[in-house]
Amino acid sequence: MLTPLPTAVPRLLDVVLDCRRYPDGDMAYAASLLDSLDASELAQLRRTTTLSHVARAPAFRCVSCNGPLLVRTDSVRSCRELGGRRARFYHARNSRAVGCLFNTEEGMTPDAINARQFEGRQEGVRHEALKKGLVDALYRDVEVISVAAEQPVIADRRFRRPDVLAMLASGDRIAFEVQLASPQMATIVGRAQFYADARVALLWVMDKTQLDASLPLQGFQDVYWPQGGAVFAIDDEALAESKCAGALRLHQVTVTQIDNRLEWSSELVGLDAVRTFLGLDVPDRHPSIAVDPLARVMLDALARGDSRAAGAAFTLLVQSCGADLSWHDAQQDGFDRIVPVLVTLLTGRKAAPSGYANDAAAAILNSALEAPSLRDWSRVVAVVGNSTVEAAGRMARRSTWSKVSRNLRVIGRAPQRADALEQRWRPVLRRLFPQLPD
């Protein structure tokens, strides 16, 4: 077990503005925000602050220059600590830090850090061997119809070359990233954003022989804790089992924090477990609703009533759409409430906490249509309702259609807010409901 240091790491920024509830922020001590966090909570906070910064709605700002702040950690080895006592706030690169009394900005970009980390080498011998073995294992699997290494994936005039790209018989695509060096947070967020935008599932794969050394590294913690403490790994045993079975076999690793130490266990699993992990086996998947991991995280959080988790996913989702919107905007406009209603309209099932039964679609729709704060979304409801035969049937019920018609007449007399909502949220709605017309 690690023995914690008697004090937290030195922090130049010991007081910050916490802007998670209010844009202007509340003053808070860094120690009160960070010291009590366990390893999982620390990784979640690091990701949330990064996503918020990318979305130009920083979660934390400097009390002196008002510039955006991110969360950095000292190593577990040097601090003998897994949780937030080894974390500190620092100025985001290219922020207002220049000239700030508390400037903590570091000059290296994520790309420069990666270049130094890999010393100019894109891949090592071990990485190449594991990647080749993964291609061979997927090639033998009857559920895989195509597989290639370094095949470009293109999305919105950008492209990436995942280590391995596989197309399943279901039509789903999975990008396998074999990661042997601890990744930067910018890399993690960037890949998640890109593949979500490209409608490709992303699976991080570690080297099982190096787990004891790799799992404590913050970059890997930033991968597996937001995934519920789960990650996949590959080694010679998995490759041998894949060859014997004629199908993909990977180690599914589960990590837990016990006091101040990490423990992990693993089991060999096949492609079915990978599909389940990525949400590709969801039985009620609907063709009109996005099912990539990022969209699922947001929709699942809304279904649970977890506003914080929904907001964290939302910040990355809107960035992938090129939209300049915040979670505060979503709550002000009622976007966070209308999206579950649209899901209910398409699926016939409850998609947010309420007193209604799971299959009480008509009651849920009617309640939303009666709400004055959601009335200006009625044109969107009508468009979604006409996008499938099943949704049209639900909307055509007399009690529902009478409310839709009434709201449309009201909007026709004063369309300004409805027009603004539709223009503002069209990219995000198209992202969540890909079959909507342009």
TrEMBL record:
<dbReference type="Pfam" id="PF19500">
    <property type="entry name" value="DUF6035"/>
</dbReference>
<protein>
    <recommendedName>
        <fullName>DUF6035 domain-containing protein</fullName>
    </recommendedName>
</protein>
<feature type="domain" description="DUF6035">
    <location>
        <begin position="121"/>
        <end position="211"/>
    </location>
</feature>
<dbReference type="InterPro" id="IPR046099">
    <property type="entry name" value="DUF6035"/>
</dbReference>
